[in-house]
Amino acid sequence: MITYGDYDWSGQYQRLLHEAQAVQHHEPTIIREGDYADNIAIVRAGFARVSQAFGPGQKTIRYLGTGHIYGLDEMKTGPSSLKSQNVYQHTLNAVGYAHILFIRTSLIDEHIVRGAFSTLSFHAKEKSTLQYETSPTLSKHKGKRTKVPASLLEFFTDHRYITGTATMLIHLDKCTRCDDCVRACTATHGNNPRFLRQGPVHENVMVANACMHCVDPVCMLGCPTGAIHRDEIEGQVVINDVTCIGCGACANNCPYDAIRMVEISDGQKPVMNKDGFPVLKATKCDLCFDQKSGPACQRACPHDALKRVDMQELEKLFNWLTT
Q1: 158: how many CB neighbours lie within 10 A of its CB?
Q2: How far apart are CA 180 and CA 296, in angstroms?
Q3: Domains and CATH numbers, the chain
């Protein structure tokens, strides 16, 4: 098991964006195209980019998340066909960071029979859902695999939005800028809205500035009290207002500036500490986890222009974009 990149990658990511450098050029190489295929790689955590040489650069083929497998194609149709000249057909790079479990092809050759291998190969390919086609426009849904535009998936990955389980997307062609979503969030959270209706835009899709409730939330690193944590039942990343001491560690760690330090009020005036300064605590989107009806922002949109999307469920994203 080997980890590529840094789990606490947010600082480097923010620096690269500030310096206007291409983030994808700073992705550690896990497997290089043309090397001898002596292992299969299983992504245990994080994300990885599969690419292939194309002219002077690389063409992205697909993206792999937790549980996805790379290297089975190089093993042809089964272990009996393993050849010494088998080489990897693609390059595998960590996106931010990736924790990889390698298994020797010789062990697979020794312990897995052809029938079992065929089942494993089929399952692994079906599980790799982060696929797209090279056409710049959305295609019709074909078969069981959802296809999204290459440029859109590149946009999500370059900005690290694919780590989100509840990324807030706004369809700009549907949005009338009525701000009902912001007002609903404000009313739900005591006049303290938890997101900004602005953010990076790709064609007609905006990623609003809101907590995405990441698969691997680096904001939780370094919290001295454990105030920011993942809910054990629903899985949202939430902040306990009682145990938050306002240190700002989570806000500094968040790569997307989705956590803010705000003044605490007793209902009439700001609460002051012993030194006479306002008490600050961390606040962010909590997906309205205490409401059975779900996020108020999404429910309030009268035009279905706002969607909270799990980036591992691209079929739902595809359907929303094309309806």
Answers
A1: 16
A2: 10
A3: 2-128 (2.60.120.10), 164-321 (3.30.70.20)
Cβ count near 88 (within 10 Å): 20
Q: Are 50 and 90 a contacting pair, CB within 8 Å? A: yes
Measured CA to CA, the distance from residue 106 to residue 87 in angstroms comes to 14
Unique residue bearing structure tokens 């600050």: 280
Task: State which H helix or E strand residue 254 sits in.
Answer: none
Q: Are 8 and 53 in contact (CB under 8 A)?
A: no
pLDDT in tens, 100-155: 999 988 887 777 645 455 555 444 444 444 444 333 333 333 334 457 787 888 88
Identify how many contiguous H helices and E strands the chain contains and give both numbers: 8, 16
Q: Which two tokens stand for residue 313?
A: 């469920």
**How many angstroms separate the CA atoms of 43 and 132, rounded?**
19
Is the overall model pTM greater than 0.70, yes or no? no
DSSP assignment string, 86-136:
-B-SSEEEEEEEEEEEEEEHHHHHHH--HHHHHHHHHHHHHH--EEEES-S
Q: Cα(first)–Cα(last) distance of the chain, in Å?
A: 43
- For residues 111 and 106, give the distance between their C-alpha atoms in angstroms, rounded to a whole number: 9
User: Residue 63 in contact with residue 153, Cβ under 8 Å?
Assistant: yes
Tokens 């999404």 label which residue? 298
